[in-house]
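Sequence and structure are no longer studied apart. As an example, we show below a sequence and the C-alpha cells encoding its fold:
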Amino acid sequence: MALSGSIQTTVNTHWYLRLEWSAKQDVTNNRSRVTVNLYWGGTYAVRSTANKTAGLKYNGGSWNTKSDTYLAGISDGEKKLIHSISFYINHNSSGDASFSVDGYFTPEVTLSGTYYGQVDLSEKSFSLNRIEQSGKMWVRTGSGWEKGVAHVYVSGSWRKAKAVYVYASGAWRQDSG
C-alpha cells in the first residue's frame, strides 16, 4: 500500500517515459484524490517541434490525451512534464482501495539511429493506503447491515460524532466501528 508510485520504460538506453502518481486521502468522504503525471526525459537532448500526443488512463477507462507542439523536444538531462490528470478513487467499507494506470507517448523521433513512433508503458495496479474507519458503526439499511458514519443533531445542524458508545453486557463502552 502506498500514497505514491511510478512506472517507467527506457527508450534506447538514454531516454525514458515515466509515469508518477501521488494520492491525497479524504478521510471524511472515504476516498483519495490521485494525481498522475507523465514525463518524457533523457540524458541527451531531443530536437523536435512537431505536434505530438501523450495519453493517460486509469482503471481501464478511455484515454485522456494531450496533443501539442514541442512535447518531444528536451534539453540534456531534462525531465519534461507532458501530461497530467487527476481523479478520485472511492475506498470500500473497510477503507481499502486500488486502481490501475497506463500511459503512452508518440515522440515520432529517431534516437541513436532507431525510429520511435510510439512509446508505451505497461499498465500497472497499485493499492492505496487504508483509510481507517474509526467513528463508524453498523447501521441497518434496506439491503442489510452496512458501515455508516454516526451523526448527531446539535444546535440546528448535523455533525459527525467523534465517538460512539454502546451499552453491552451491563456496561457502556466506546465502539470504534
The chain has a mean pLDDT of 89. The CA atoms of residues 136 and 149 lie 5 Å apart.
